[in-house]
What we know:
- The complex is a heterodimer.
- Chain A is of the alpha/beta class.
- Chain A has helices at 40-52, 77-88, 128-137, 145-149, 163-175, 180-196, 211-215, 219-227, 240-262, and strands spanning 4-10, 14-20, 26-33, 55-61, 73-74, 93-98, 103-108, 114-119, 206-209, 231-232.
- Chain A has 2 domains: 4-82 and 239-262, 2-Layer Sandwich (Nucleotidyltransferase, domain 5); 90-232, 2-Layer Sandwich (Nucleotidyltransferase, domain 5).
- In chain A, strand 2 (14-20) and strand 3 (26-33) form a beta hairpin.
- Chain B has helices spanning 15-28, 45-50, 58-67, 71-80, 89-100, 104-109, 129-140, 159-180, 186-208, 219-225, 227-231, 236-255, 278-287, 311-320, 328-341, 365-373, 392-406; strands spanning 36-39, 54-56, 119-123, 145-148, 265-270, 290-295, 346-352, 376-382.
- The radius of gyration of chain B is 21 Å and the shape is globular.
Amino acid sequence: MSKYYQGIDIGSSYTKLTVIDETNRICYQDIVKTMNRDKQELANILTKIKSDYNIVSICATGYGREHFKDAHINKTEIYCASVGVSTLFPEAKSIIDIGGEDIKVIKTGGDGKVDDFYMNTKCAAGTGTFLIEIAERAELPLARLSELASKSNFDKELNSFCTVFAKTEIMKWIFDEVPEQDLARGIYISIVNRIAKIRMDKTLPIFLIGGVIQYHPFLKTIVEEKFQQRVVVPENPQMINSFGAAILAKKHAESEIKIASKY
Amino acid sequence: MSQETIKQPYKIKSAKLMKELMGNYFLGMKDKTKKIAWCTSVGPAELLRSFGFEVHFPENHGALLGATRTATDLIPEATKLGYSSEICSYLTADVGSYLKKETPLTEHYGLEGPPKPDLIVYNTNQCREVQDWFEYFAKEKNCPIFGIEPPRYVDEVSNEAIENVAAQFKSLIPLCEQASGQKFDIDKFRETLRLSKEATDLWKKVLWTARVSPSPISFFDATIHMGPIVVLRGTQMAKDYYITLLKELEDNVTKGIGFLEAEKCRIYWDGMPIWGKLRPMSELFAANNAAVVASTYCNSWVFDAFDEKNPFESSALAYTEIFINRSEHAKEKILKKLIQDFRIGGMIFHEAKTCFSNSNSRFGMPLRLKNETGIETLVIEGDLCDLRFYSEGQTTTKIETFIEQLS
């Protein structure tokens, strides 16, 4: 009977699930809202995975990792991101993971080991939640933000570190009748400039992952402009941490077999 | 999670005795016949005790407000008075407690608040905030105050600095005589310093048991067991307590028992504890089999220089050469030795928002140490008392990633 491995990334906004087989091939992926009070949707997905695949090991990651009782191991999303991206791209790199409430910058070699990392713990400016709040104040539809920004050459940013005060700041742009495509690009520049203040190895290529890049692909262009470096966005960048978790679930299962075979 | 079973860290049995000792210390403050001096935690406690003062340490009260998580409610009272919420949260919590007339001392020991001072003494060897803090209370309590102001951020302590500080200690004597009603007695001072030296030597031995793996005591344990060396140094009780504690820990070392069964990695903690999160922090590291075994914070009450033969000069040296009062260069030298002595694999720097003086990550030290020694370092943001500056979920992820990195 074939063996399968499951990764579950319980993030602040969404819960992502990936199932892989013994060759690391992705067999199944799904995504549900984390804070959905109706737990049935996630329960249905888990039941489906259980019935369709012979899952031998589960790794949980993300903020909710401690709460997923069926997991065999828990690993941080920083490690999972590093393992997930490195499995697909085994080279030295910087990973920028922009999630719902945080930004993580990870330096990693080709083997997936975390060499260095940074994570915001003081405020959530420049994250997915920041984007939602600012776009709402600017009355810009989130789904069109990327397309709008691509039509602009605007080069200004919002300076405030506080998301709420940044909303006040964008009102000034609206009073000045800044066109909506410029507003969109200005919001993206603000996010990228915040990332640029974080210590990063300038010689390494950048891999963008997380929910924000999944839905705002134009950010890649701004990152390229700012960092003057090769920028890669893996396929399904929002799912990569759950993929990394699935890889670690597989490694865990293999090490258990090794231990068992010793006795 | 069906992961390998992780045991909780063991409990140190002497803790019961320590609680009694600390309880008696606080209950002793109820005795209205005794003269009370307030003193900074690394101030000249021995000199004050030699005059028969009971000594109250406002920082100890600040830590209590932090540990009981009452500080966050009290700090706004001080900020309403014009104190910034970004200055020392011991100060703002303590002033807030005074203004709001709320203290855990009431529930635990039946005290209305800290005892009324007959004399207030501070030493700016740790920071300038203590001066403002103690002056506020001197005015409020209409109490005489004396400040010792040594040279700050010294590389090594010069003879001039020792003479300077020793002279300041001597200048304090007339005020002590007036407030206590007792004449200065050099023999009493020598005796108090001898007892303090014996206790501090024992405290050092207690902390140094953690050089062994598995270590019998964690940094988090040490922040609790340092109570007597802070508030009772110079007394027989403090010395006796550390004899008992040391014996327990040495017995555990002999038996090979550590607070963790197996240490996956050994960590140094820099800066202040996050008092309101001591237990969850201790459990977080234990759950990941990471042993936090060294700190310069708990080492602050190791006074190697005390010498009863030269009580003034040796006290001046001991209180001026403390880690917090040293240059970046001297601090790095001390840290490099600790890394070796305690076989440290990773260093966590707590950048306490309201404690500038004891946050050593602000001038690039973690990266310098990493580059020079190859040791992994992590900076976490938080505070000693004000939990509004601490993001638990994010910090947990950072710490767990760091441990994954070390393992």
